[in-house]
Design goal:
- Strands 3-14-13-12 form a 4-stranded mixed beta sheet. Strands 7-8-10-9 form a 4-stranded antiparallel beta sheet, with helices on one face. The protein has a 4-stranded antiparallel beta sheet with strand order 18-22-17-21.
- It is an alpha+beta fold.
- It has 3 domains: 154 residues, Periplasmic binding protein-like II (D-Maltodextrin-Binding Protein, domain 2), CATH 3.40.190; 114 residues, Dipeptide-binding Protein, Domain 1 (Dipeptide-binding Protein, domain 1, Alpha-Beta Complex), CATH 3.90.76; 217 residues, Dipeptide-binding Protein, Domain 3 (Dipeptide-binding Protein, domain 3).
- The N terminus is likely disordered.
- The protein is built from 15 helices and 25 strands.
- α7 packs antiparallel against α10, α9 runs parallel beside α15 and α14 runs antiparallel to α15.
Length: 545
């Protein structure tokens, strides 16, 4: 679970594909409630030539460029091109070698990573096992305050066992840990630079010293971030086609769409859905859809208030008009969510997807029955506060829909508007959640394993925003996380899915595809959510020779 984006690999969401084979190339899918068709493909047409530079629009300025604190789209979208992980996520949603050329598991509690030789940091120094140890251990240090710290709960030790070898020993079996080495937890940076930069690391005052195809040239706070080509990048297949990349920050959805149409921004991910129709009909570029694993959910933040009563949570879910929410919030592109984790999170064992996800019932829409549940809970007239923001149009749409649903069933749903920065803080700062009952998130996986999403509902996990706790759930999670066979693990994960649906610590809303706009002068970008960790900017070049 994350913030309003808030990946599973090797997969497509239900909004994108009826079968797992759809991830292998472009497919046509009907737009829910719409009538038009759209294609889903992991990449855009290949670049035809080099560029001096291109400008990329972010919906908000990154709150950090510290890999250990990056827990949202803006920072990860930038860092994907600057810093790298031991393993790598590809546009077609696979996990492959990255800074580790190979890895092995001599026993269930031991992981050995053999590092790629000759990899240089941006300052020209060579990456060693010492850098890996320091980078990973920093995630575990409570002083760092990393939201990824809980991913290291099972780790007993991280040690250099050779100049290019790192061995990680676990206190208990943890099948998810190595998969997460393809995401932020597996990021490797220069240990020397961490020591030199100190508190400035990841801030506009600091510098980054990583191994990616681009290096950080400048962060003009409040204005832009500029990256420059790393001519010494180790992966020649991903040698950057553009000399520079400039990121601009445009919070207003209409202004962001206008930037695409005017050419002041060459492209951007997470296109405002309110602009889909306008951008699709424009001759200024192409609106493309890619694989996504996110589901828009309502995360309960306070189980001591009105939503502490399960009947009220169920009632609110039953009162949501999801089909109309999709029309208004997702440009008509999407499907009602059956569970907190999207269909796209279920492809680690594809043969189990139909059995364990597709057979789930469609969400019920029954206002009368929902109102009765509120009455039975003696909650009529009680207050529920949901946070809203101008960060993205769909946030306001969903918040207003929740308010309307609450009114129909006897709840007093109040909207609390906050700035985009304050909205993002809810997902990293527990104090920012005080006085709030609900927040709109996009739940996703970083791995090809549905279990990865459901780990965020464990007792004490950083992503468990409402501090929900269920002993049966925790035991079931540990059992699933010790099962090495993907098919058997999927069966065990389905039990977690059932508990989550029975207890509703998260209320599922809808699923939608990932989106990207590319102006006429550029092409080559991956189109899906893998852009959070794959060096996507390196593949962008001129659309014509």
């Amino acid at each position: 679970m994350r913030m309003p984006r808030a990946l599973a690999l090797l997969v497509c969401t239900a909004a994108l594909a009826a079968t797992t084979s759809a991830c292998s190339g472009a497919t046509k899918q009907p737009v829910a409630g719409g009538g038009a068709d759209f294609k889903v493909s992991p990449t855009s047409p290949a670049a035809q030539g080099p560029l001096d530079s291109f400008t990329w629009s972010l919906y908000a300025e990154p709150y950090t460029l510290d890999y250990a604190l990056a827990y949202d789209y803006p920072p990860n979208t930038v860092l994907a091109n600057v810093c790298e992980q031991l393993l790598r996520v590809t546009p077609d949603m696979k996990i492959v070698p990255g800074l580790a050329v190979k890895w092995s598991q001599p026993d269930p509690r031991t992981l050995v990573y053999t590092l790629r030789p000759g990899v240089k940091f941006h300052d020209g120094t060579t990456m060693t096992a010492d850098d890996v140890v320091a980078s990973l251990k920093r995630q575990m240090d409570p002083k760092t305050g990393s939201p990824w710290g809980s991913s290291f709960k099972s780790v007993d030790s991280i040690e250099k066992t050779g100049p290019l070898e790192v061995t990680i020993r676990l206190g208990k079996e943890d099948v998810l840990f190595s998969e997460l080495m393809a995401a932020s937890p597996g990021t490797v940076v220069s240990a020397a630079s961490l020591a030199e930069e100190g508190k400035n690391y990841g801030t506009p005052k600091g510098r980054l010293n990583c191994t990616g195809p681009y290096s950080l040239e400048n962060w003009a706070q409040g204005d832009s971030i500029t990256l420059k080509k790393n001519a010494a990048y180790w992966d020649k297949s991903l040698a950057p086609k553009s000399e520079k990349v400039k990121f601009t920050f445009i919070e207003d959805a209409a202004a962001r769409s206008n930037a695409f149409l005017s050419g002041t921004a060459d492209g951007g991910y997470l296109v405002p859905s309110s602009s889909f129709a306008q951008l699709r009909s424009s001759s200024k570029g192409s609106l493309l859809f890619g694989p996504n694993t996110a589901a828009a959910d309502l995360a309960v933040l306070d189980f001591h208030g009105t939503l502490g009563n399960l009947k009220v949570r169920k009632a609110l879910s039953m009162a949501l008009d999801r089909k109309n929410i999709i029309k208004a919030a997702a440009g008509g592109v999407g499907v009602p969510a059956k569970a907190p984790a999207a269909r796209g999170a279920w492809a680690l064992a594809p043969q189990k997807t139909a059995e364990l996800f597709d057979t789930l019932p469609e969400p019920v829409y029954d206002v009368a029955a929902a109102k009765k549940l509120v009455e039975e809970a003696h909650a009529t007239g009680r207050t529920v506060t949901i946070v809203t923001s101008s960060l993205a149009p769909e946030i306001s749409v969903v918040a207003n829909a929740v308010q309307d649903a609450g009114r129909k069933i006897g709840l007093d749903v109040k909207l609390k508007p906050v700035s985009p920065d304050a909205y993002s803080s809810i997902f990293v700062d527990p104090s920012a959640r005080e006085g709030l009952d609900l927040v709109i998130t996009n739940g996703y996986d970083n791995t090809p394993d549905p279990l990865e999403f459901y780990q965020y509902l464990r007792t004490g996990d950083f992503g468990n925003y409402g501090r929900w706790s269920n002993a049966e759930y925790d035991v079931a999670f540990d059992r699933a996380n010790s099962e090495p066979d993907p098919a058997k693990r999927a069966e065990l994960t389905s039990k977690l899915q059932k508990i989550a649906m029975d207890e509703l610590p998260i209320i599922p809303v809808y699923e939608a595809p990932f989106s990207v706009f590319l102006g006429k002068r550029i092409t080559g970008a991956p189109t899906g959510i893998a852009q959070l960790y794959y060096p996507w900017a390196a593949t962008i070049g001129a659309s014509q020779r």
